[in-house]
Protein backbone atom coordinates (compact mmCIF):
# COMPACT_ATOMS: atom_id res chain seq x y z
CA UNK A 1 0.00 0.00 0.00
CA UNK A 2 1.48 3.35 -1.01
CA UNK A 3 1.51 6.52 1.01
CA UNK A 4 -1.46 8.84 0.21
CA UNK A 5 0.83 11.89 0.27
CA UNK A 6 2.95 10.72 -2.67
CA UNK A 7 0.77 12.42 -5.34
CA UNK A 8 0.86 15.65 -3.34
CA UNK A 9 4.65 15.52 -3.07
CA UNK A 10 4.93 14.80 -6.80
CA UNK A 11 2.72 17.80 -7.60
CA UNK A 12 4.76 19.98 -5.24
CA UNK A 13 8.00 18.84 -6.88
CA UNK A 14 6.56 19.54 -10.34
CA UNK A 15 5.53 23.05 -9.25
CA UNK A 16 8.93 23.88 -7.81
CA UNK A 17 10.65 22.35 -10.83
CA UNK A 18 8.58 24.42 -13.25
CA UNK A 19 9.24 27.61 -11.26
CA UNK A 20 12.99 26.95 -11.13
CA UNK A 21 13.10 26.07 -14.83
CA UNK A 22 11.18 29.23 -15.77
CA UNK A 23 13.41 31.52 -13.73
CA UNK A 24 16.57 29.80 -14.95
CA UNK A 25 15.48 29.98 -18.58
CA UNK A 26 14.67 33.69 -18.31
CA UNK A 27 18.07 34.40 -16.79
CA UNK A 28 19.86 32.55 -19.60
CA UNK A 29 17.73 33.58 -22.59
CA UNK A 30 16.49 37.03 -21.55
CA UNK A 31 18.05 40.28 -22.76
CA UNK A 32 20.59 41.95 -20.54
CA UNK A 33 20.37 45.54 -21.81
CA UNK A 34 19.90 47.89 -18.87
CA UNK A 35 19.43 51.62 -19.15
CA UNK A 36 18.35 54.40 -16.84
CA UNK A 37 14.67 54.18 -17.81
CA UNK A 38 14.50 50.47 -16.98
CA UNK A 39 16.07 50.97 -13.57
CA UNK A 40 13.55 53.64 -12.47
CA UNK A 41 10.42 52.84 -10.51
CA UNK A 42 7.28 52.64 -12.64
CA UNK A 43 3.99 53.82 -11.16
CA UNK A 44 1.28 53.36 -13.78
CA UNK A 45 2.65 55.99 -16.15
CA UNK A 46 2.98 58.67 -13.47
CA UNK A 47 6.40 60.19 -12.95
CA UNK A 48 7.65 58.97 -9.55
CA UNK A 49 8.15 61.68 -6.97
CA UNK A 50 10.66 61.50 -4.12
CA UNK A 51 7.94 62.20 -1.56
CA UNK A 52 4.28 61.19 -1.41
CA UNK A 53 1.63 63.89 -1.81
CA UNK A 54 0.31 63.56 1.73
CA UNK A 55 3.69 63.98 3.35
CA UNK A 56 4.54 60.29 3.15
CA UNK A 57 1.71 59.14 5.40
CA UNK A 58 -0.51 56.22 4.47
CA UNK A 59 -4.18 56.52 5.46
CA UNK A 60 -5.21 54.22 8.30
CA UNK A 61 -8.08 52.94 6.13
CA UNK A 62 -5.61 50.76 4.22
CA UNK A 63 -4.44 49.06 7.40
CA UNK A 64 -7.98 48.57 8.72
CA UNK A 65 -9.03 46.96 5.47
CA UNK A 66 -6.01 44.65 5.55
CA UNK A 67 -6.71 43.62 9.14
CA UNK A 68 -10.36 42.92 8.39
CA UNK A 69 -9.37 40.79 5.42
CA UNK A 70 -6.91 38.80 7.51
CA UNK A 71 -9.40 38.27 10.34
CA UNK A 72 -12.23 37.06 8.12
CA UNK A 73 -9.85 35.01 5.98
CA UNK A 74 -8.44 33.17 9.00
CA UNK A 75 -11.94 32.55 10.33
CA UNK A 76 -12.94 31.00 7.03
CA UNK A 77 -9.90 28.68 7.15
CA UNK A 78 -11.31 27.14 10.35
CA UNK A 79 -14.31 25.93 8.35
CA UNK A 80 -12.25 23.60 6.11
CA UNK A 81 -11.41 20.89 8.69
CA UNK A 82 -15.04 20.83 9.76
CA UNK A 83 -16.21 20.43 6.17
CA UNK A 84 -13.75 17.60 5.54
CA UNK A 85 -14.63 15.58 8.65
CA UNK A 86 -18.30 16.55 8.93
CA UNK A 87 -19.69 13.00 8.82
CA UNK A 88 -17.32 11.75 11.57
CA UNK A 89 -17.74 14.55 14.12
CA UNK A 90 -21.34 14.26 15.22
CA UNK A 91 -23.84 16.66 16.75
CA UNK A 92 -21.44 18.34 19.19
CA UNK A 93 -19.19 19.56 16.37
CA UNK A 94 -22.23 20.79 14.44
CA UNK A 95 -23.38 22.89 17.40
CA UNK A 96 -19.85 24.25 17.90
CA UNK A 97 -19.59 25.20 14.22
CA UNK A 98 -22.98 26.93 14.29
CA UNK A 99 -21.82 28.96 17.32
CA UNK A 100 -18.57 29.80 15.51
CA UNK A 101 -20.44 30.96 12.39
CA UNK A 102 -22.80 33.06 14.52
CA UNK A 103 -19.77 34.70 16.13
CA UNK A 104 -18.30 35.44 12.70
CA UNK A 105 -21.57 36.97 11.51
CA UNK A 106 -21.86 39.11 14.67
CA UNK A 107 -18.35 40.47 13.98
CA UNK A 108 -19.28 41.02 10.33
CA UNK A 109 -22.47 42.89 11.31
CA UNK A 110 -20.50 45.04 13.76
CA UNK A 111 -17.94 45.99 11.11
CA UNK A 112 -20.72 46.69 8.61
CA UNK A 113 -22.64 48.86 11.11
CA UNK A 114 -19.51 50.86 11.98
CA UNK A 115 -18.82 51.55 8.29
CA UNK A 116 -15.64 49.48 8.05
CA UNK A 117 -16.65 48.11 4.65
CA UNK A 118 -17.28 51.51 3.03
CA UNK A 119 -14.42 52.89 0.99
CA UNK A 120 -14.24 56.68 0.78
Describe what you observe in this structure.
The protein has 120 residues and is mostly helical. It contains six helices and no strands. The protein is flat and about 65 Å long. The model has no long low-confidence stretch (mean pLDDT 83).
- Quote the average pLDDT: 83
- N/C terminus separation: 58 Å
Helix-strand category: mainly alpha
> Residue share in helices?
55-70%
Total strands: 0
Helix and strand element order: HHHHHH
Total helix count? 6
Structural shape: flat
Report the biggest beta sheet as strand number plus sense, adding barrel if it closes.
none
SSE layout:
Blueprint: H1 6-29, H2 36-39, H3 60-77, H4 79-84, H5 86-89, H6 91-114
Main attributes?
120 residues; mainly alpha; flat
Précis, in short:
This protein has helices spanning 6-29, 36-39, 60-77, 79-84, 86-89, 91-114.
Amino acid sequence: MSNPYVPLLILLALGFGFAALSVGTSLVVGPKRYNRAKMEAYECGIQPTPRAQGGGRVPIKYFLTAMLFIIFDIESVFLYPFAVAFDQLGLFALVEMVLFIITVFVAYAYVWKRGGLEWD
